[in-house]
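We now fix the convention by which a protein and its fold are recorded. Here is one such record, which you should read through line by line:

>
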Amino acid sequence: MKLSEIASITGAEITRGSPDIEIEGAAGLDIAGKTEITFLANPRYALKVADTNAGAIFVGKESRIERDDIALLETEDPYVAYTLALRNFYPEKPLVSGIHETAVIGESSIASNVQISANVVIGDGCKISTGVRIFPNVTIYDGVSIGPGTVLHAGVSLRDNCEIGANCIIHNNCTIGSDGLGFARTKEKKWLKIPQIGRVIIEDDVEIGANTAIDCASVGESRIKRGSKIDNHVQIGHSCTVGEDALICAQTGLAGSSVIGDRVILAGQVGIAGHLKVGDDASVTAKSATSHDVEEGAIVSGIPAFENREWLRSTAAYRRLGAMARMLRKLEKRISELENRGESSE
């Protein structure tokens, strides 16, 4: 593909190099070759440009690249441009329409242009839309609906009456609609299971990582809204709502009835206590946990989580606690000596 074509696809401007350069792929700074394009988005990696073998590079508008043997494409966001190029060079494999002979399908509505692989089980009353790809060993319970273009990777389980939107990607061994942790304690101090009779609704363009579990509501629904991206090994409890374009990283846990706003970022291993609200555009940094609501746009850290800048100052002080303790002991000793001198002079 010519450099000019890449510029057109990505909305970048060629500021150095011939538009007719042939580019065959895209790769990172460290491994890109002469026929590949790379990117520089983080100034921290600027020194690596001196050693890259790439033939072309996406850079920001204000970047200054000294090497004149690399073609430059300027763009507002080099990482987005690189992603667009990467998607063009390595498109998804085409759908292979058909139903494998080992699939078991109940009384359900299956569109004509779908891919259903080996050992898939689909219950009664399901609706599978056109363009859906279902990989081996997927289990779909009764009453599930799946929107156009959605992909279910091997081992996924969709429980009763779940609704999956269009163009979703659900990775290996996810469980959608499993029972929430709902129990009532009897007077004998035994746990009595509360029927979990709700469902899960996944809106359009949601991606869910491997081994993630999203529990159904005890009544009503658990909902993941349009465009949200969820990483591997995430637990989302019953009756939770996750807003549009939220990003939830690995090993995060949401307790029941949590409400996560639009465009929220929950970094790795974050914990959200039950019945809390995290406001739109808020961020919770890695390994933090909150037991209170988080305001819109806030960035919080720690356990319990509080404002990030205050947390950074607190952790800086924490590192000095040993020295501060030694200083206090010296001051206590000095004060004691001065008091003893005062008593002796009297």
Observations:
- The chain has a mean pLDDT of 93.
- The longest helix spans residues 321-345.
